[in-house]
Hints:
Blueprint: E1 4-9, H1 16-28, E2 31-37, H2 47-57, E3 62-66, H3 77-91, E4 98-101, H4 105-113, E5 116-119, H5 131-136, H6 147-153, E6 155-160, H7 167-177, E7 181-183, H8 186-194, H9 202-220, E8 226-230, H10 233-244, H11 249-258, E9 264-268, H12 283-299, E10 305-307, H13 311-324, H14 332-335
Parallel strand pairs: 1-2, 1-4, 2-3, 4-5, 6-8, 6-9, 7-8, 9-10
Amino acid sequence: MGKRGLTLGKFAPLHKGHQLVIETALAEMDEVVVIIYDCPEVTEVPLTIRANWLRKIYPTIQIIEAWDGPTVVGDTPEIKKKHEDYILGRLKSQKITHFYSSEFYGKHMSEALGAINRLVDCDRQKVPISGTEIRKDPFKFRKYLHPLVYCDLITNVVFLGAPSTGKTTIASKLAQEYNTVWMPEYGREYWETHQVERRLSLEQLVEIAFGHLEREEAMKQQANQYLFIDTNAITTYHFSLYYHNSVAPTLVDLANQAALGYDLVFLCETDIPYHDTWDRSGETNRNIFQKIILSDLILRKVSFFQLRGSLDTRIQVVKRVLSQYRKYSNLLELLSPYTNV
């Protein structure tokens, strides 16, 4: 039999200290098994998402999701026995030769497994961080987080609406208030550079949608808790219909993805003065476009909050929503207080 290493944890969130343990095991073992615990008392990030971090970053390891694992922690004989019995039960007939950890439980767990106790960076000299510290302020300690992990901790807030409904203004203002970054509408920048007689081709509209998403992903690494986003591929989809009465299949797919790709969606209403610029097509078209977007969101079953009134009124509504919102929770819990806003 080859060497099979085991490590375990909550990975809430997965950070470079955990990765050091896993990567040490991968370098030394023929096989690596990771047990990851459900821990709603510690983090709201679901077990499935935390397990997928491991699967995507380390595709060769075997993941065991411990949905029913013991949650009590401590150094008593009773607590140790609970964890040992659970792990031995989950492993079934798999023989573990090395147990990897940087914690006190390495000794008793390796003994229960009949494995070598392989301790890694117990004094936290190589990676001086803990999950507790990161949970308090992920932005401050983001250098210890894999980009995939950090992106999943950011709340993506998108503002939709017809042209001249205040999307850019509110996104930039909120970014300033929350000490974070915002994502401008890439389509406007692209249009100004590439338009011919105020038109873009079907292929160019796909390029806009891809370019916008690429910039969003890059901006998440700079974001502090929230990324405020001006527009998404649903808007580009409707511009394609407006220009061509047709949509490229790729853009259809991107719009469908956008319907599920944002944590919070705010629809900016048309009850503010229309700002007429050379690149816009008039207030009548603004009102029509707004109705189209509203209808589209309803048909796609996208939950959204409508923003009306002055900029300050709109900002206060967003801030109230954000104050109660939890990224990995049921959004419907928030809807009833705001349905008449």
